Large ribosomal subunit protein bL25
Amino acid sequence: MELKASIREKLGKKTRSLRKQGFVPVELYGHGVANIHLSIPIKDMRNALRSEGDSTLLYVTVEKESIRRPVLVYEVQENPLNGEMLQVDLYQVKLDEKIKTKVSLEFSGESPAIKAGGVLVKSMQDIEIEALPADLPSKIEVLITSIKEIGQSIYVRDLQVSPRVRIVALPETVVGTVVNKVTEEEEAAQIAKTAGVEKVVVETEEKKAERDAKKEEGKVGDEKKGAEPQPAKK
């Protein structure tokens, strides 16, 4: 996907007016690439992120330039209160050099173990991969149909990716596991059991402190009894 960008003169707090006009401030940089202050229509930026994801190769054409810059989305800053896009950092890459980045995992399919009452526990939401920029996937699908029984897991070695993509994580790394669903009664019983153990531990520590104190008192008493009487001073 291609994005058209304009050179940005407004910096710092002045970018607020830029956002009100429907543009998002963009910082473009890369290895051996001078930092450029840009602005891109917010609508175009959101469409690119929605359709391509934040790990897919994008192309940026800067005004008055005849070249297309290959970039990856490095960071998106948003207002946590209203979701407003505040700034986007783009990293320019070299098409002939492999890079490492994280891509999202998308769990799909129906697991017989879940149908039997189990719950899927995801060990990871994204995963690091290495590939040429043009070969980077927007996401990796995790098919859970192979999980037949409760307690069974799916591993990195089970993920299906292009031969041009290398997953950095070890093959035996767990991606997700189906476990038994804990009922409210079981959860309450576990909490009560934990509370009981904590109470016993506290009482044991208190009793230990009392015993130590009594031992010290006994030692002092023995010392007094065994001490030789001193002659009274005249």
Observations:
- Residues 123 and 175 are 5 Å apart (CA to CA).
